[in-house]
């Protein structure tokens, strides 16, 4: 384990909190699976005929945002899991150390620069 792991762990936990906060504005946790988030429809309190199209559109937007945030959350959780296992900062493809600059740009990076998708 590198001495800096704690710095990255803090960054990851901070980002996780932010991502979960954002998720709670466009979705809700699946009651049967806490790791799964479901998009929610925007509030229906003011539903009027004219607004139906708009609402469908913003629901579609929520679906897209939830997918994006969920996938980011998955990356963050995977990185936190690696910290726990003492394998943080190692490329998932070649097993070499991930460049420091890359981890600073994205603490959840799972691969080195040569194996970026
Ligand atoms: Zn690699």
Q: Give the averaged pLDDT, no decimals.
A: 89
Share of helical residues: 40-55%
Q: What would the principal axes of the Cα set say about the shape? A: elongated
Number of helices: 3
Ligands and ions found: zinc ion
What class do helices, strands and sheet pairing give? mainly alpha
Brief characterization of the structure:
This protein has three helices and two strands, in the order αββαα. The protein has helices at 5-26, 52-85, 100-105; strands spanning 27-30, 33-39. A two-stranded antiparallel sheet has the order 1-2.
Task: Describe the overall structure.
With 117 residues, the protein is mainly α. It has one domain (5-87). Helices cover 53% and strands 9% of the residues. It has helices at 5-26, 52-85, 100-105, and strands at residues 27-30, 33-39. It has a two-stranded antiparallel sheet with strand order 1-2. Helix 1 (5-26) runs antiparallel to helix 2 (52-85). The radius of gyration is 18 Å and the shape is elongated. It starts with a helix and ends in a 12-residue tail after the last helix. The model has no long low-confidence stretch (mean pLDDT 89).
